[in-house]
Write a structure and sequence with these properties.
Strand content: 15-25%
Protein name: Ubiquitin carboxyl-terminal hydrolase
Radius of gyration: 30 Å
Mean pLDDT: 83
Low-confidence stretches: 84-108, 163-169, 298-302, 672-678
Number of domains: 5
Organism: Loxostege sticticalis
Structural class: alpha+beta
Number of helices: 21
Keywords: Hydrolase, Metal-binding, Protease, Repeat, Thiol protease, Ubl conjugation pathway, Zinc, Zinc-finger
Distance between the termini: 62 Å
CATH architecture of the largest domain: Alpha-Beta Complex
Enzyme class: hydrolase
CATH class of the largest domain: Alpha Beta
InterPro entries: Papain-like_cys_pep_sf, Peptidase_C19_UCH, Ub_carboxyl-term_hydrolase, UBA, UBA-like_sf, Ubiquitinyl_hydrolase, UBP13_Znf-UBP_var, USP
């Protein structure tokens, strides 16, 4: 053992962590090294940050913090249990949180045992002192023991995200639970032998908590499920809450649905409500699948699920640089797929992978919450190949992006929880974060940025107006009307309807989905739109106008989104089950916009006294309560002349898939639409002026950032030297790169399931001339890339 004199000079800096101190002992803050890595992890007894062997010396040289707790974890597989005549061990029925190594899905027991070995290490020289060690100074012993006893910050964050959830799905307490009306009708529910009161079904049964009726649930899209008798009962009686029989547990939990709120909910008084009908929850056991389990199972039965995962193929696992998988940290497959695609573009590699050594060398005070550090850490981890280590059943160790996920989701209403989310929305959120954190460096997302050109023509004067805006994706509508196999689809739908009418079910794997030509989707995007309520400055009144949309520039990389997600007539989300013939290579020159032509007359600038739109506040409030974005609600009221809820809601339903559905609303033909940048909101201008900037500076910054105040402040601070310079002439290209319109497909992301909220994402990437499937931490050679079933497609300029 090294001399204790080596520790003495550093005792004054060593700290004893308090109960609120986060201790990063599970993973290096700059790499994905962890206690199971060959060299373990070193936790500073000053900052309580963890470092792998590659970074601990640099940290010491930068900070002088020399004393660390070294953690090395020994991992051993659990031996197979001896078989007895008692049958298999009991399966788990809930997600296991905080259990090392997870569970064997076949028997519910831990797969591995873990033994942690500790030592105190002093740099330089890595002088080692064994632990436990009575000879160590008291402050060192207390600090080390506190680190060992501390909860993992990853586990703390996971528990916070899962608080009040079941299998990661957050549920609100029902407003009907507190004062639920329960009828004294003498009904007593037996402990078993349940059957629907209106048909012969004995599964998928729901107990209405008001009158005690037992009725079957909804019919699923594939014909399975129930006969809708429970929901019909609600429509007849208005009794709001029902619990799914078989999901009730002895602690008073179960699947409760609120028909009035149209959602799964929490009923904190469920045990009392069940007692009213003679049910003692302490004697109950969960015997049926939860709604989340059922939907996941339903997804897996479909042909789409198997096709997108290439389940019928003997996939050969791949390992090495740029072939690193990502652990699914509880419904994080949408993050995993987007990240795998992002790091296929050289601009992102240069910024975050090649630039990582310079970035890490600065050793920021709080690397855990430094967006650039954590993004670089992720990029290096994915592309280096260091963590692409083979494991059993075709998986690999891969990387677990705990810190990245927590950082990008912090404060966001969707991405901060453990529910499945939309990969496209996360893509846009990630690009926003990258832009905010590229103040002094080139923004790598510029390779995806392009200018959209809109040409609007007044039908009375024939004058035109051109406007441009910047985008990072091209949304294409799914042209269902153009299905190449329409007769076969109609025949299948007829057979399915006949089967449902007779109580039979068609095999979901034999579904006939519409096959849509890519060109039809392109033409749907390009077709002329009719714009009502357009204020024409040429005739000084509202008229009907015609609008066409084109691209003013073409980016180095073009991300195409197929608008597969929609809202059904009953206001529930749905996904179009279609196959779109996406091309391997494509020429998009037909999308090229040309700007104002010599034979065209531009519309005059709108008069400053153009009347501002008015919105019926009561209608606006009602629409917002339905969950629609405020800007979309304004559009609906404007284009329906505030005529009522039915007209406005119908407009919203018809325009749900518009790519600017939730964008800031500018009345068509208003003065602000005439310029490249929108007129700034007065409240935003005043907010920036309150920080000491002039009105001209505030207005210019907001115009350059689409009216976003935080981005406008970043814009101002990064351009302090040019704030008072004359504003440049309008740039039709908006500073976007431009080039030829020919592209090749290099990656696509696919979604399995009926909703963005439940299902699974995988991605396929063209790597060194061959297609690779990334299914979380499974990485394999793709034999049949299902490009016609994708959702997001990344094209690279040829």
């Amino acid at each position: 053992m090294a001399s204790l004199d080596l520790i003495t000079p550093h005792l004054s800096k060593i700290k004893i962590p308090g109960p609120q101190q986060l201790i990063y002992k599970d993973e290096c803050v700059y790499s994905f090294d962890n206690p199971e890595s060959e060299t373990g992890i070193y936790v500073s007894l000053v900052s309580f940050l963890g470092f792998g062997r590659n970074y601990v010396e640099q940290y010491f040289q930068k900070t002088g913090n020399a004393v660390f707790l070294h953690i090395q974890r020994e991992k051993k597989p659990v031996p197979e249990p001896e078989q007895t005549g008692d049958g298999p061990e009991k399966k788990i029925t809930r997600l296991a949180i905080g259990v090392e190594g997870g569970f064997d899905p076949e028997c519910g027991r831990p797969k591995f045992t873990y033994t942690d070995h500790y030592a105190v290490v002093v740099l330089p020289g890595f002088h080692t002192y064994p632990w436990p060690n009575a000879e160590l100074p008291d402050v060192v012993k207390k600090s080390v023991q506190a680190v060992i006893d501390a909860e993992s910050p990853f586990k703390i964050a996971e528990m916070a995200a899962l608080q009040g959830t079941w299998d990661g799905e957050a549920r609100e307490v029902s407003v009907h639970a507190v004062n639920l009306k329960q009828l004294d009708n003498g009904i007593r529910i037996p402990p078993s032998g349940w059957k629907c009161a209106k048909c012969d079904l004995t599964n998928n049964l729901w107990l209405n908590l008001t009158d005690g009726s037992i009725l079957c649930g909804r019919r699923y899209f594939d014909g399975t499920g129930g006969n809708d008798h429970a929901v019909e009962h609600y429509r007849e009686t208005g009794y709001p809450l029902a619990v799914k029989l078989g999901t009730i547990t002895s602690d008073g939990k179960g699947d409760v649905y609120s028909y009035a709120e149209d959602d799964m909910v929490e009923d904190p008084y469920l045990a009392d409500h069940l007692k009213h009908f003679g049910i003692n929850v302490q004697q109950l056991q969960k015997t049926d699948k939860s709604m989340v389990e059922l939907e996941l199972e339903l997804n897996q039965r479909t042909g789409e699920w198997n096709t997108l995962q290439e389940s019928g193929s003997d996939l050969r696992p791949l390992h090495g640089p740029a072939l690193t998988g990502l652990s699914n940290l509880g419904n994080s497959c949408y993050i995993n797929s987007v990240v795998q695609v992002i790091f296929r573009m050289p601009d992102f590699v240069r910024r975050y992978v090649e630039g990582a050594p310079e970035l890490f060398a600065t050793f920021p005070e709080d690397p855990v919450n430094d967006f650039n550090v954590q993004t670089a850490k992720l990029g290096v981890g994915l592309l280096s190949g260091r963590y692409s280590i083979p494991e059993a059943e075709g998986t690999q160790a891969g990387v677990a992006p705990h810190m990245f996920r927590q950082l990008v989701g912090r404060g966001h209403p969707e991405f901060s929880n453990k529910r499945q989310q939309d990969a496209h929305e996360f893509y846009l959120h990630l690009l926003t974060l990258i832009e905010r954190n590229s103040r002094h460096k080139p923004n790598p997302a510029d390779c995806l940025k392009f200018a959209v050109e809109e040409r609007v023509q007044c039908t009375e004067s024939n004058n035109v107006r051109y406007t441009t805006r910047a985008e990072h994706h091209l949304p294409l509508p799914v042209a269902l009307h153009a299905a190449a196999n329409a007769p076969a689809v109609r025949e299948y739908e007829q057979r399915r309807a006949q089967a449902e009418a007779s109580g039979q079910r068609l095999d979901p794997s034999l579904v006939v989905r519409p096959h849509i030509p890519f060109q039809a989707c392109l033409e749907s995007f390009m077709k002329e739109e009719i714009v009502e309520q357009f204020f024409s400055s040429a005739v000084n009144k509202k008229v009907t106008a015609r609008k066409i949309t084109r691209l003013a520039t073409f980016p180095d990389y073009l991300l195409i989104q197929l608008k597969k997600f929609t809202i059904k007539e009953d206001w529930t989300p749905a996904k179009l089950d279609v196959a779109v013939d996406m091309p391997w290579e494509v020429d998009l020159s037909c999308l090229r916009g040309r700007g104002l032509q010599p034979d065209e007359t531009p519309l005059p600038e709108a008069a400053p006294d153009t009347p501002a739109p008015t919105y019926n506040e009561a209608l606006l409030s009602d629409l917002l309560e339905m969950g629609f974005p405020v800007e979309a609600c304004k559009k609906a009221l404007y284009f329906t002349n505030n005529s009522g809820m039915e007209a406005a809601s119908n407009w919203l339903m018809e325009h749900m898939n518009d790519w600017d559905f939730a964008n800031k609303f500018e009345p068509p033909g208003a003065a602000s639409a005439a310029s490249a940048g929108a007129v700034a909101d007065e409240a935003s201008v005043e907010q920036i002026m309150s920080m000491g900037f002039t009105r001209a500076q505030a207005t210019r910054a907001l115009a350059a950032t689409d009216g976003d105040v935080p981005r406008a402040l970043d814009w101002i601070f990064s351009r302090a030297h040019e704030l008072d310079a004359p504003a440049p002439a309008p740039d039709r290209a908006l500073g976007c790169r431009d080039g030829p319109e020919k592209y090749k497909l290099i990656a696509f992301i696919s979604h399995m399931g009926t909703s963005t909220m439940v299902g699974h994402y995988v991605c396929h990437v063209l790597h060194e001339g061959r297609w690779v499937i990334f299914n979380d931490n499974k990485v394999a050679l793709s034999e049949n890339p299902p490009k016609n079933l994708g959702y997001l497609y990344l094209y690279e300029r040829l």
